[in-house]
Amino acid sequence: MIQPTPFCNINCDYCYLPERASNSKMSAAVLKRTLEKVFASGLVGRVSVSFGTPVSRSRFQYRSTKRRSKLLMNYRIKKRICHSIQTNGTLINDGWCEFIKNHDIRIGLSIDGPELVHDAHRKDRRGQGTHARVMEGVRCLRKHGIDFHVIAVVTERSLDYPDEVFNFFLENGMHQIGFNIEEIEGTNASSTLSQNSGEQRSGNSSRESFSYRNNLKVLSELESSIARSRQSSLAQTRKV
């Protein structure tokens, strides 16, 4: 995967990537040399070019990099480039949807579940939750018939509300989901899932501290449940 810009317009507290406020970007010349060396090595068959959170930039600015676009298209014709965007969804609009469809770009959406889970960690640079804006982006993508997959980060908050997380994805028809465990990595120096990080929860006895092994078990069960629900929906559709 090639990521030509580190910039992100929001400030998730579990993000492990440094320099998220940097506006620097890879030049077309550097991208060209990178692709040439990657394919010349013979070690890689295809490359995914992910532009971080590119919708934070104007789509006109994105389109104006003609050398970069032409270079990517030349490789895509040879079926060696997969052009994708992983986005937080907060800035998706009609213009971006048209651009995405016209350029056959694959979309991945970052959303952790319902508002009470998502907004606990995924905030903007003013400290405000982003869930409502993400859902506006979801509605816009669907209005334009653009399919997308989801990446959700599993935190201690997620495990406090497993039913709510499951129901959110099910009710919103999000069946292509990748769950990432919150990790201590890069600039993220601590994790809410660390066995040594939290005190015993009070209140409802069913909401206790989970060991890392139990976290993985809950995650596996959640993925299996969503997969079964999707298969059931497909079976019902075929009957109709």
Explain the overall architecture.
By secondary structure, this protein is α/β, with parallel strands linked by helices. It has one domain (28-188, 203-239): Aldolase class I (TIM Barrel, Alpha-Beta Barrel). It is built from 9 helices and 5 strands, in the order αβααβαβααβααβα. The protein has a 5-stranded parallel β-sheet with strand order 1-2-3-4-5. Helix 4 (94-102) links the parallel strand 2 (81-87) and strand 3. It is globular and about 50 Å long. The model is unreliable at 196-213 (pLDDT under 50).
The total count of strands amounts to 5
How much β-strand is present in the residues? 5-15%
Question: Which structural class matches the secondary elements?
Answer: alpha/beta
CATH-level-4 superfamily name: Aldolase class I
What is the CATH architecture term? Alpha-Beta Barrel
CATH topology description: TIM Barrel
Amino- and carboxy-terminal Cα gap? 41 Å
Oligomeric assembly: single chain
- Report mean pLDDT, rounded to a whole number: 77
The tally of structural domains comes to 1
* Uncertain regions spanning at least 5 consecutive residues: 196-213
Main beta-sheet strand count, sense and barrel state: 5 strands, parallel
Read across the widest sheet, the strand sequence of neighbours is 1-2-3-4-5
Q: Note the total helix count.
A: 9
- Tell me the name of the CATH class: Alpha Beta
Overall shape: it is globular
The gyration radius over C-alpha positions equals: 20 Å
One letter per element, helices H and strands E, the order comes to HEHHEHEHHEHHEH
Helix content: 40-55%
